[in-house]
Amino acid sequence: MNKILTLVLIFFSLVSLAQKPKGKTNQSASTTLADTIKADVAYQTEINLLARYYGDSIVLRWAPGTPGGWTNANKAGYIISRTTLDVNGEFDPATFKNLNSEPIKPWPLEKWETIAGEKNSNNYAKIAAQALYGKSFVPSTGFIDKADDYMSRYSFSMLAADISSETATALGLRFTDKSIEKNKVYIYRITSPVDTTKYKLIPGFIVVDTEKPEILPKASISDTKELQNLIEIYWDRELHSKVFSAYWIERSEDGGTSFKKLNKVPFINPVDEKNPRSIDYIIYSDSIPKNYKTYKYRVIGITAFGELAPPSDPVSVMGRDTTPPPVPGNLKTVAIGGSKVKITWDYPKDVKDLKGFLIGRGNNPAEQFTPLVTELLPSKSREFIDNNASEERSNYYIVAAVDTAGNANLSLAKYALMVDSIPPAAPTYLQGKIDTTGVVKVSWRLGPEKDILGYQVYFSNQKDHQFSQLTNGPIQDTVFTDTITIKTLTKKIYYRVVAIDLSHNYSGFSEMLELKKPDIVPPSPAIFDKYKVTNEGINVSWMPSSSEDLARTILYRKEEKGDWAELVSFGVKDKKTSYMDTKVESGKFYSYSLIAEDEDKLRSKRSLPIKLKYLDLKAKPLVNQVVAKPDMEKGLIKINWEYPVKGEYRFVIYRAVNGSNFVSYKSIDSGNLIFDDKDVRKGNTYEYTINVIFKDGRKSGFGGIAKAQL
């Protein structure tokens, strides 16, 4: 936009277009531009339409939204049609009637001479004519320059139409409808019969109520800025841009009796990326010859219909001296005993508008300073004594020179060295914690001294070793974060803290803080080294874990189809390395494993299990009371016996015939104590003995022998 404003000024001084160019004189406005730009089929834009009701007529103003739309519409022209809303606020689209018999187009070149010739003063018409028919609007050498030239023709033409109603009419962008009635609501439509295969122009619509003419609002100045020989005035950009296209700015030097226009061309203020306020405000800057003189400013808006709005309410402003006086130099501070400090400085003698000096004191040069005087020191002052300097904290001083306009300039801050040989007390209430990642938080209580500069933190891996400094210098906090390695041989770490005051006096060491490092390494597992099956049960023994922080050893047992279950556990103080499992059943398999647990509840992997079968090694009683009786009638021998042992087993009957060897004969479940031997013959002698076989495979041995003859 800055380029556009510059070109506007250039074109105001262009040679008059009264001289006709060589060649044809009745060429249309679109011919020259269309020769250089060919619109793409995919391009489209909307025709933006505005309207103003003046009581006896309605004036329409329009403009295509793009340069391509403008050049195509210049060739095809515009058709304006109108219809009326009924009392219900409805209308029939078929009732639109054209208000112009021929499309409205820009004037031919020869007609422009009536408003843009040498004898005419309408510079906007000259700019628009040059934009329409000039061979080169801006110097061009390449494609980009031609594109700039194309955009400039469009932009300047739209600007000229906004400011000059006569130029808007000549550009074919304005129409006056006098065939209206009062208290009607009209709908206007504007179209252009362009070739839609090349460029699509979307029709524009607007509704106008003729109940009463519109009252043109006036601009409103929102803010001002008073600078040295410079005034800035601000008005809302979004609010005003809805009504006005440009502005005249006026200034009064006689209290508002008369105003003088300041800008030679209508003022258009685009957004300046370097000035964020220009996003929200239109800004006008005016250089003034004299400060502290009251000026009045007002703004006159220019609408897109070329109308001038009423002037805004004037605002009163004045330029002000914003140049600060020279900086006080060679600032010196000297402690003169107790809490007294003498401050001296140098300053030029020929500063005419110097009003006096202010003195400030602070404890930190980067923070706010407290004024030490309620009124300015005389302009001839070059020294000041502070009677209330802090003996415990830092004292920094600044001197400010103040002129008659209230402008100030500050010296550099100067430190006052106070004599202090008393060290602060050693820090107390040390606390700390180490997380599982090795981050250590150490804290302590803030000391009571006001001149504490900071604290230094020390550490050691052994409490009887020398402590090493952790901090590079004093830290101004009562919390320190350290990072340590957890996987080390040492299980603890020790910290101490020292306080330092502003005079660099060191306190003694604080009490030692002992912190236990988190254990993230599980203990090594225990290992079975012996096992034994006895009459009492199964005895297992092991070698315990070698970890220093072993807390207990846990023995697990699992039956053949079961899950692991804790059987028993022993603490380190128990010193147990074996266990007799008596809750076993003969013939069953049992698996055993070990897990070691340390002081932090970390557990080892499960040891390699052992699997054992328990057998009851105690001898089982014999079957001694065996009786065999022949039954001659039935031809069999009845055998019965007694066995008091409970459990799961079976009886195996052995038989010998006529003195032969005993052989296994019959197997009988434990619930039976009687057997009929039917496989016998008369005259033979039979002997019987019984053996007991238990479920776990053990046998009782052979007991008594019973003899019978059939």
List the helices and strands and how they pair.
Layout: H1 2-12, H2 29-34, E1 44-53, E2 58-64, H3 67-76, E3 79-84, E4 97-98, H4 109-116, H5 123-133, H6 143-163, H7 165-170, E5 174-177, E6 185-191, E7 200-202, E8 204-209, E9 223-227, E10 230-236, H8 237-241, E11 244-252, E12 260-261, E13 281-287, E14 295-303, E15 315-317, E16 329-335, E17 341-346, E18 354-362, E19 370-371, E20 383-386, E21 395-403, E22 408-410, E23 414-416, E24 431-434, E25 439-443, E26 452-460, E27 468-469, E28 479-483, E29 492-501, E30 513-516, E31 527-533, E32 538-543, E33 550-559, E34 565-571, E35 578-581, E36 589-598, E37 610-613, E38 626-631, E39 636-641, E40 649-657, E41 663-669, E42 674-677, E43 685-694, E44 706-709
Parallel strand pairs: 1-7
Antiparallel strand pairs: 1-2, 2-5, 3-4, 3-6, 6-8, 9-10, 10-13, 11-12, 11-14, 14-15, 16-17, 17-20, 18-19, 18-21, 21-22, 21-23, 24-25, 25-28, 26-27, 26-29, 29-30, 31-32, 32-35, 33-34, 33-36, 36-37, 38-39, 39-42, 40-41, 40-43, 43-44
Helix pairs in contact: 4-5, 5-6
What report would you give on this structure?
Helix content is 11%, strand content 37%. A hairpin with a 4-residue loop joins strand 21 and strand 22. The protein starts with a helix and ends with a strand. The chain is mostly beta strands and 710 residues long. The strands form twelve sheets. Strands 18, 19, 21, 22 and 23 form a five-stranded antiparallel β-sheet that branches. Strands 5-2-1-7 form a four-stranded mixed β-sheet. The protein contains eight helices and 44 strands. Helix 4 runs antiparallel to helix 5.
